[in-house]
């Protein structure tokens, strides 16, 4: 039976990766004002559009980095949500519902509007990481997450409250510094339309690091799932594990917000969908969750182009439309 289950998990993971690859390829040509043929897509991906027509160059310089970013950001947010759910033993935990995304957005708003000037480079990335870290600490304090008898509902309630506070402050900053923050309006909806290869390079590093870390701590998260006391008795250093997940979660969420803006609910949906196919073992959950996250954001980006073509709806808005009812459905099953 164990062998059969393992085979089914491998098939599920393989199918998810193939589906993500299919959506990636479709994303290169889907809903474009310029007709893009499979040959154009091939030339754009493998020949950088050189010696080809306008459509191939559009693929090479606009569609390809956008599709890569969608897959990488979706996978990163999904893994971040999986780590958060594992360390809190709460299937509702995610960067959005724990306020990390909201805090990261607020940090970037302070820097973008010029209200805070950081004395080092990469201001946007550092600001989002610090903002997310501040929000997460506040949520854990309000939700008493470090207590062994902490209420899961209280943690999520604290996260929603902090997220709402950060969201309100972010919009207030945009209104008060309108001339400097006009470019943030599209960013606040979670748009992938302006992403280019430098942002893809950042997300590639963050995603690979997040995937490696998640794979390393997967067995420990399986023990945490048995309970904090049991995990401690089996040799898991809970404080160190929580600190690692905290730092990783802030960096992963901060990077996605800095690149594409706040994209909600991917970190909630992907791990829970992945569990339906591979079960609760975190070792197969890691690759499956990453693949599902890529699928969700690629699909959201394609759907965003289709809704009001030739105009575009930001992928973050589409993800929120799907994620909100998903959250309500999941919340019904939580005590």
UniProtKB/TrEMBL annotation:
It comes from the Bacteria. Pfam families: FecCD. SUPFAM superfamilies: ABC transporter involved in vitamin B12 uptake, BtuC. Keywords: Cell membrane, Membrane, Transmembrane, Transmembrane helix, Transport. It is a multi-pass membrane protein. CDD domains: TM_ABC_iron-siderophores_like. The keyword Transmembrane applies. The keyword Transmembrane applies. It is found in: Cell membrane. One of its GO terms (molecular function) is transmembrane transporter activity. One of its GO terms (cellular component) is plasma membrane. The chain crosses the membrane at residues 67-84, 96-118, 124-148, 155-177, 200-219, 240-265, 285-303, 315-333. Belongs to the binding-protein-dependent transport system permease family. FecCD subfamily. PANTHER family: ABC TRANSPORTER PERMEASE PROTEIN MJ0876-RELATED, FERRIC ENTEROBACTIN TRANSPORT SYSTEM PERMEASE PROTEIN. This is Iron complex transport system permease protein.
